[in-house]
Amino acid sequence: MSEKKVTRRDFLGIAAMSAGIVMTFGSLAAMGLRFLTPRRTGSQPVDLYIGRIDEIPVNSSKIFHDLRGQEVIVLRTGEGVSGFSNICPHLGCHVHWLAEEKIFFCPCHLGKFDAEGKGVSGPPADAGQSLEKVIVKHDEIAGNLFLQVPAKNT
Ligand code: FES
């Protein structure tokens, strides 16, 4: 049986190749972690333009969509605008505004919410539930409406 002698040149070649493999897989692992871990551009929410105030008559509402495609119901009263998720907190049906009664109505179990989104009748009132509020900003000079949404991850 013959023993092969490892020369200094062989040793340096193997060491260089090993270092190259470690660096390559280390770089790939770092890129993988970066890809899997979302970066945040900041914690400040952003304003999403949704339309003009004159698209919503006083004492009526209109549905808009946020960046995730979720429906937001924007109510305009004589005092201003306010926004809510139109998902009923009881079992998830969609609510709508009844102008004559000045309430949000959920047809599934006859739930009712006042103009502030607070449950006032039916199962949501019994459970002390309210509609989820969404911040809507009104630029009174230009008449534009904006939804405040979380900053998008990049
Ligand atoms: S789902 Fe709205 S009252 Fe039940």
Total strands: the figure is 11
**Overall average pLDDT:** 88
Q: What is the domain total for the residues?
A: 2
Small-molecule components bound: FE2/S2 (inorganic) cluster
The CATH superfamily of the largest domain is Rieske [2Fe-2S] iron-sulphur domain
CATH topology of the largest domain: Rieske Iron-sulfur Protein
CATH architecture of the largest domain: 3-layer Sandwich
Catalogue the unreliable spans: none
Q: Give the proportion of residues in helices.
A: 10-25%
Q: Strand content of the residues, in percent?
A: 25-35%
Class from secondary-structure proportions: alpha+beta
- Whole-angstrom Rg: 29 Å
Largest sheet: 4 strands, antiparallel
Which CATH class of the largest domain?
Mainly Beta
Strand order of the largest sheet: 2-3-4-9
By DSSP (H or I, 4+ residues per run), the number of helices equals: 2
Instruction: Estimate the global geometry from the Cα principal axes.
Output: elongated
Topology as H/E string? HEEEEEEEEHEEE
Calculate the terminal CA-CA distance, rounded to whole Å: 61 Å
Secondary structure layout:
Elements: H1 8-36, E1 46-52, E2 60-65, E3 71-77, E4 80-85, E5 96-98, E6 103-106, E7 111-113, E8 119-121, H2 122-126, E9 133-134, E10 136-139, E11 144-149
This protein binds FE2/S2 (inorganic) cluster.
Please, could you describe this protein's structure?
With 154 residues, this protein is α+β, with helices and mostly antiparallel strands. It folds into 2 domains: 1-37; 46-149, Rieske Iron-sulfur Protein, CATH 2.102.10. Helix content is 22%, strand content 33%. The protein has 2 helices and 11 strands. It has a 4-stranded antiparallel β-sheet with strand order 2-3-4-9, with no helix packed on it. It has a 4-stranded antiparallel β-sheet with strand order 5-6-7-8. β6 and β7 form a beta hairpin. The longest helix has 29 residues, at 8-36. The termini are far apart. The model has no long low-confidence stretch (mean pLDDT 88).
